[in-house]
Amino acid sequence: MATVSNNNIARAIYLAVKDKHTTEQHTVIKNVVNFLFRRRMLSKSKNILQSLNNIVNHANGVVEVKIWSKYKLSHDHKDHLEKILKKRYGDKEFIFLEYLDDKLLGGFNMEVNNELIDLTLKNKIYKLQEHLKTEYE
Amino acid sequence: MNNHIVENLKKEIENFKSILKVEKVGNVIEVFDGIAKISGLSDVKSSEMVTFPNAEVGVVLNLEEDSVGVIILGDYSKIKEGDQVKATGRILEVPVSDSIIGRVVNAIGTPIDGKGIIKADNPSKNSGPSAYPIEKVAPGVITRQSVSEPVATGIKAIDAIIPVGRGQRELIIGDRQTGKTALVIDAILNQKGQNMICVYVSIGQKDSKLRKLQVRLEEGGAMAYTVIVSAGASESAAFSYIAPYTGVSIAEYFMDQGKDVLIIYDDLSKHAVAYREISLLLRRPPGREAYPGDVFYLHSRLLERACRRNEKYGGGSITAFPIIETQAGDITAYIPTNVISITDGQIFLETDLFYKGIRPAVNVGSSVSRVGSNAQIKAMKKVAGTLKLDLAQYRELEAFAQFGSDLDESTKRQLERGKRSIEILKQSQYSPMKMEHQIVVFYALTKGFMDDVPVEKIKTFEAGLIDYSEANAKNFYKEIKEQKMWSEKGEEELKKVIADFKKSFI
């Protein structure tokens, strides 16, 4: 028998709670916790929730965007980013999850759908260094 | 001058446009025993290189539904849960260039001999690409040609009875301490001036043993055409797993230049054990002897890369000498039988023979070369045919002779010939013998010139005969070197020289 992956469980949960009323959803969630307890899989609940979150987001056309920056981004910045992201990922709803990172010199890092877009100052300096190295070596 | 440099730099900086690159990333879920489980990394390929934050490199082995299994090539103690991992989009590759010859590198091609970096690029020499992927599909049927040129190992028992051709895969199998490594060192030492590049892949060996081997090769001048790839016993199983593939990629680099390469995998039993360790850690289902289901493919895809390419595809060849260490002589174990079935023959080394003083301890009865006889030179074929027969008859009669005392003359003669044949096949370590010398010795043996030489004096006779014939049978030697066969005239000359030497010897 094939191993049950976190993704399988998350998909099953999604299908079970989809189109259900709140009370029914509550029962399903209780059963899920029982199931995970019986199968000794409670330690995997964090990863299962993550998978469930991805499935729900995918179904609702929502994309999570994680941003690490030195300072909080302004609304204008975010609007501009949303326009760029829509070009790349299509007409979806983008949820920005912002994290402040003191280690950054400037610029920001962005992670969308397992893709990393490095727009930090450090990365730009590094690329310039590589460029100058190849030019002058 | 300084202003000029600053101006130039300023211009470069002003005109520099950074190209936006999107990288595929994932996060470490767990790390243990050189293995990392990673979430994310969508679109990553099997065998693709990934990088960890501390610049350590990993190779993707398992592609699961919601995670990726990676082997870490380096120090994994600093990698922690949640670390970001980047996909490189490249299959693991090894930097290669002509300057890798004479160097000792680790499993990822980084030099470990303290002689500095290996410059990968050499565009002025047009020596091909500088990085070779370690996993590659073996050359197809159309690009190959059959084995027809010999590999002179310098070991009499092999060159005469179990000949190996360029492009062949010949397994060396035996228990521990039977002289497997010694045999291949001799084969490497004998490649001097034979237009052959040697790659020695050490898998899970002690560093002291490797150092001894390197010194021995340096003393014999063999490092001038040899590369050593080492995955030591102190390194993680991941290194042992990829080392043979790195070795064969280096060999392919030289083969692509039309050169002949001899590659030695010492040894594939440890390679299989390393792969078993990785597979079990990656939770792949265990099969026979706890090896994973694809352990056959592990070795078959490696050994299939040994080949002889035809001229249309650039020529060149890779001859492989995989080594397998058996436990208590059990050649029916899983890995030995697998590798026996993949290779084009095997050389059996036996503990009993080794302790009887027959060294190299090659069991000529059980050893076989399936394609090598086509590569044997005509002269050697002629003398070796009789030798094989003599030895086979000796083995058969030896058992009977232990019971009966009354033996007829012809049986006694065969037994005596057999004893001398065994004695002649003995050879001390680090003393490979030239092909033409071997032919002279085997000629004298099979034509009965040694039948009345006492067995205990055979080795002295052999040494004397080589020196004497080299000085007095010049035409014979010339014919062997140039035409690979003797003429009637040359044969007469040799017969006379042997007879003369025998008179002075006895």
TrEMBL record, chain A:
Domain of life (superkingdom): Bacteria
Topological category with respect to the lipid bilayer: Peripheral membrane protein
Gene Ontology molecular function terms on file: proton-transporting ATP synthase activity, rotational mechanism
Keyword Membrane: yes
HAMAP family according to UniProt: ATP_synth_delta_bact
Function: This protein is part of the stalk that links CF(0) to CF(1). It either transmits conformational changes from CF(0) to CF(1) or is implicated in proton conduction.
Family note: Belongs to the ATPase delta chain family.
Name of the protein in question: ATP synthase subunit delta
From TrEMBL, chain B:
Recorded catalytic activity of this chain's protein: ATP + H2O + 4 H(+)(in) = ADP + phosphate + 5 H(+)(out)
Family: Belongs to the ATPase alpha/beta chains family.
Gene from which the chain derives: atpA
Localisation per UniProt entry: Cell membrane; Membrane
Lineage, top ranks: Bacteria, Candidatus Nomuraibacteriota
Alphabetized UniProt keyword annotations: ATP synthesis, ATP-binding, Cell membrane, CF(1), Hydrogen ion transport, Ion transport, Membrane, Nucleotide-binding, Translocase, Transport
Species per Swiss-Prot/TrEMBL record: Candidatus Nomurabacteria bacterium RIFCSPLOWO2_01_FULL_36_16
Function noted in UniProt: Produces ATP from ADP in the presence of a proton gradient across the membrane. The alpha chain is a regulatory subunit.
Site features described as Required for activity, chain residue numbers: S367
Keyword Ligase set for record: no
Any one Gene Ontology cellular component term annotated for this protein: plasma membrane
Chain ranges of the ATPase F1/V1/A1 complex alpha/beta subunit nucleotide-binding domain: 154-369
The protein, known as: ATP synthase subunit alpha
Positions with a binding annotation for ATP: G174, D175, R176, Q177, T178, G179, K180, T181
